[in-house]
């Protein structure tokens, strides 16, 4: 067995085009590091609806140039089989380790396959790539990014010509063609022949952001902004300047791209501690800003923080993704928006209440913007993980830049009325009921922990959570009358809802909780929030016990 493992590693080494990963793998072979070699060569990094994502390193289960070249060759074969024999493929990339190399390899493979390739001029936000696909009439797009994953990761996200991410069966069809790729030496990779785009596409994207805001709307809200060591800063500053907002105060330590993300354990605004520097900057800024805006490293997500009240000494707190989702929806309704409002099933049901009250169509989808973006007649879509699509005609994906503009416009409107985002959240709670959400998220090293938890919940579904009877228990692998099958569980309780699923992009088990409490007047909100917090805490405890996590 060890001889076979060493032979496979040497075969991979012989065709690895990257000197760095060749050196890394040669050292593992020389050391006969069986454990590490087994981890690297026990299967392959699987291509799915999230494309590819994983740790950088040598071997078929890691992100590296050999894996990317095979993925690009499989995508090229798929596109040609679909009749796009000379179509344009647009390629974008972020500032992570190896991103530029992976983008260049993709362009070379597409060119060698007879397709036309165009690469964005420098590391730019993922929404710029999603916009460029439709703007340039491309047949596909590739974004090299691992979004908000840890520094050791990178990824490969694929879009088709409609500007939205791939969904089944395209993912399995591309994966089959990747598996059929012969030796890397047989994949043509010329040294030139693709186009490096200029700033025209970025300028067009920035011009499109103008459509997000209402003509003549207030532009007075002051912001603190963090790019989280990613690629958002220059685009966000340009968009805010075009719009006429006050220039955001930057979190200097996180303003510029840095693939090592030195100030955060995980470059995700949702993670504990990730926003600490932004809070510190806001506290030190005078006059006090009205809100904090954060992007994740590829700027397709947007986080918002506000001062928790007006009293002296009031500190800053993050708004939940569901809270921002509801605020943006209410703002668009007040502006007279038409079209369908959509969200993923793990997001708050408050959006459905807002849409219903406004007489607008509403849809629930599976998790991910690959599904939300495909809703017919979409006007606005969001999911709780800080993703918002506020201009689907421009970017058919989540876009942290335009979401930042729209939430800052709303803060400006409220500021002119002497009100805040928190005041509007209170109004929504009184109008539609307090919708309180929380999440139980467990990061694991061993993926079998997730599989065991899902098996345990399927075999022994909880009958009660926080003392509330479970009135319906659904295994979503069987699908529903409105949703295709997915690996998840949904529990309906009296006034509450729980969804459990493995993360599609990280080694996490994620449990999404919501409780809904009717509220008749503003003075009932403190008691309702306290009750909701107690219920959510109790549900988390009971669910963790039932799942064995």
Mean pLDDT across every amino acid position: 95
The CATH topology label of the largest domain is Alpha-D-Glucose-1,6-Bisphosphate, Chain A, domain 3
Count of discrete domains? 3
The tally of helices reads: 17
Sheet-strand content, in percent, reads: 15-25%
Number of strand segments: 21
The CATH H-level homologous superfamily of the largest domain: Alpha-D-Glucose-1,6-Bisphosphate, subunit A, domain 3
Termini separation comes to: 34 Å
- The CATH level-2 architecture of the largest domain is identified as 3-Layer(aba) Sandwich
Rg to the nearest angstrom?
A: 24 Å
Give the helix proportion (percent range): 25-40%
Supply the helix-strand structural class.
Answer: alpha/beta
Shape designation: globular
Oligomer: single chain
Strand arrangement, largest sheet? 1-5-4-2-3-6
What is the CATH level 1 assignment of the largest domain?
A: Alpha Beta
Query: Unreliable runs, pLDDT <50, ≥5 residues?
Result: none
Describe the structure.
The protein is an alpha/beta fold and 549 residues long. Helix 4 (65-81) packs parallel to helix 5 (99-112) and helix 11 packs across helix 14. The chain has a six-stranded mixed β-sheet, with helices on both faces. The protein has a six-stranded antiparallel β-sheet with strand order 16-21-20-19-18-17. Helix 5 links the parallel strand 2 and strand 3. It is globular. The chain starts with a helix and ends with a helix. It has helices spanning 2-15, 19-30, 34-41, 65-81, 99-112, 126-136, 170-179, 200-209, 233-243, 276-284, 321-334, 350-358, 369-372, 400-416, 421-432, 448-459, 525-547; strands at 52-55, 88-93, 116-119, 140-144, 153-160, 195-196, 223-226, 249-250, 291-295, 302-307, 316-318, 340-344, 362-365, 378-383, 387-389, 434-443, 464-465, 468-475, 489-493, 496-502, 508-517. 38% of the residues lie in helices and 20% in strands. It is built from 17 helices and 21 strands. The model has no long low-confidence stretch (mean pLDDT 95). It folds into three domains: 43-199, Alpha-D-Glucose-1,6-Bisphosphate, Chain A, domain 3 (3-Layer(aba) Sandwich); 222-430, Alpha-D-Glucose-1,6-Bisphosphate, Chain A, domain 3, CATH 3.40.120; 434-547, Alpha-D-phosphohexomutase, C-terminal domain (TATA-Binding Protein), CATH 3.30.310.50.
């Amino acid at each position: 067995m060890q001889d076979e493992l060493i032979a496979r590693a040497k075969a991979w080494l012989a065709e690895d085009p990257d000197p760095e990963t060749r050196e890394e793998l040669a050292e593992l072979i020389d050391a006969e590091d069986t454990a590490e070699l087994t981890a690297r060569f026990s299967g392959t990094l699987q291509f799915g609806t999230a494309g590819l994502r994983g740790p950088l390193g040598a071997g078929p289960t890691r992100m590296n140039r050999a894996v990317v070249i095979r993925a690009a060759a499989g995508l090229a074969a798929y596109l040609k089989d679909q009749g796009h024999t000379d179509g344009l493929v647009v390629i974008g990339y972020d500032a992570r380790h190896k991103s530029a190399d992976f983008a260049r390899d993709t362009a070379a493979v597409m060119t060698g396959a007879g397709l036309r390739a165009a690469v964005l001029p420098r590391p730019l936000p993922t929404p710029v790539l999603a916009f460029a696909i439709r703007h340039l009439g491309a047949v596909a797009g590739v974004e090299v990014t691992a979004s908000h994953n840890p520094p050791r990761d990178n990824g490969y996200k694929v879009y088709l010509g409609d500007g939205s991410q791939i969904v089944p069966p395209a993912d399995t069809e591309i994966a089959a063609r990747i598996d059929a790729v012969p030796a890397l030496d047989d994949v043509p990779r010329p040294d030139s022949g693709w186009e490096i785009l200029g700033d025209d596409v970025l300028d067009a994207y920035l011009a499109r952001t103008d459509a997000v805001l209402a003509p003549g709307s207030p532009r007075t809200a002051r912001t603190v902004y963090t790019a989280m060591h990613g690629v958002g800063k220059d685009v966000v500053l340009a968009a805010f300047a075009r719009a006429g907002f006050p220039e955001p105060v930057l979190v200097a330590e996180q303003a510029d791209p840095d693939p090592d993300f030195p100030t955060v354990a995980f470059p995700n605004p949702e993670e504990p501690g990730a926003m600490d520097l932004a809070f510190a900057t806001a506290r030190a800024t005078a006059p006090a800003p009205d809100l904090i805006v954060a992007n994740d490293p590829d700027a397709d997500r947007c986080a918002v923080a506000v001062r928790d009240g007006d009293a002296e000494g009031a500190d800053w707190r993050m708004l939940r993704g569901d809270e921002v989702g509801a605020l943006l929806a209410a703002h668009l309704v007040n502006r007279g928006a038409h079209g369908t409002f959509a969200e993923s099933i793990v997001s708050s049901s408050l959006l459905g209440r807002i849409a219903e009250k406004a007489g607008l169509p509403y849809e629930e989808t599976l998790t991910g913007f690959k599904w939300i973006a495909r809703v017919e007649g979409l006007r606005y879509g969001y999911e709780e993980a800080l993703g918002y699509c506020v201009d689907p005609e421009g970017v058919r994906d989540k876009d942290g830049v335009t979401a930042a503009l729209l939430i800052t416009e709303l803060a400006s409107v409220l500021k002119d009325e002497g009100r805040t985002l928190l005041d509007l959240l209170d109004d929504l709670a009184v109008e539609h009921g307090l919708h309180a959400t929380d999440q139980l998220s467990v990061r694991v090293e061993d993926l079998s922990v997730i599989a065991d938890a899902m098996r345990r919940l399927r075999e022994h579904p909880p009958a009660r959570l926080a003392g509330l009877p479970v009135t319906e228990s659904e295994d979503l692998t069987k699908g529903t009358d409105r949703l295709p099958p997915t690996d998840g569980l949904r529990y309906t309780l009296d006034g509450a809802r729980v969804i459990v699923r493995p993360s599609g992009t990280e080694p996490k088990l994620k449990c999404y909780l919501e409780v809904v409490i009717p509220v008749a007047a503003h003075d009932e909100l403190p008691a309702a929030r306290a009750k909701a917090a107690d219920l959510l805490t109790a549900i988390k405890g009971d669910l963790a016990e039932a799942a064995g996590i």
